[in-house]
Amino acid sequence: MAYLEIRDLFVHFRQKRGGLFGSTIDTIRAVDGVSFEVERGEILGLVGESGCGKSTLSRTVMQLQRPTHGQIILDGENLTALPGYQVRRRRLDFQMVFQDPYASLNPRMTVFATLAEAIRQRHPGASGQVLAGRVATLMETVGLDPRFQKKYPHEFSGGQRQRIAIARALAPEPKLIIADEPVSALDVSIQSQILNLLKRLRKDFDLTMIFISHDLGVVRYLADRIVVMYQGKIVESGEAESVFRSPQQPYTRKLLEAIPSMIH
Ligand SMILES: Nc1ncnc2c1ncn2[C@@H]1O[C@H](COP(=O)(O)OP(=O)(O)OP(=O)(O)O)[C@@H](O)[C@H]1O
Ligand SMILES: [Mg+2]
Known about the structure:
Number of helices: 11
Bound molecules: adenosine-5'-triphosphate, magnesium ion
CATH architecture of the largest domain: 3-Layer(aba) Sandwich
Distance between the termini: 39 Å
Strand order of the largest sheet: 6-7-8-3-9-10
Helix content: 25-40%
Order of helices and strands: EEEHEEHEHHHHEHEHEEHHH
């Protein structure tokens, strides 16, 4: 059985458009009939051009957005049918890492406070001593010096901030991590360090990952399997290497041609 199963998922937004003679309602089909599976321990790469629905899909999987239709089945449990309090309990099992760590970290909280808060989600009664130990271990895990735990996000570089965001995602001991463009805002020289970190964490913590990126070069490096989205639909999916070696759909070929480094 797949760890995560997305079945016939639709997420539509209704948008009012004002005109001179009254308004009309547009339907935006952000996710339009998507089904796929993620195996335990796998890194699934989700790719497609801007606006094709990648973030909406991931927010819906995270239960931050209600689907218009369809099911999200995690480890055999249909999340879309669960009452709110049970969804909150299951949500600890999946965490997100976003593109801009500066926006996703609270600027008024030290690294210690940020990580301690995330640890307490799983262990509400953790003592100060346990928290101190866990925070130090988490920082070491993501390659940060624990001596910096009393510093604030602005005192770190972009790459270090993304390491803090990754540590925060790991803190509640999740099983699934959804990373939405986690290296797109970083210098190219830093990108590979963060990608290597994610690769290592997947192995060390037995994580399942959905890795979203518009950069197919980055996805090729990390993903076991790839799902290509276009205008809310899946147009191609398969083993990463075979999709890269012999893309079946013209849209995938176009995406691949857009990566300069891969033509050579
Ligand atoms: N809350 C919302 N209300 C209305 N429309 C929305 C909402 N969220 C997303 N959309 C629309 O849904 C479509 C898909 O957006 P989404 O952010 O999921 O794309 P994306 O693939 O993540 O793009 P990018 O690569 O730029 O991050 C877009 O047309 C977007 O404008
Ligand atoms: Mg997005």
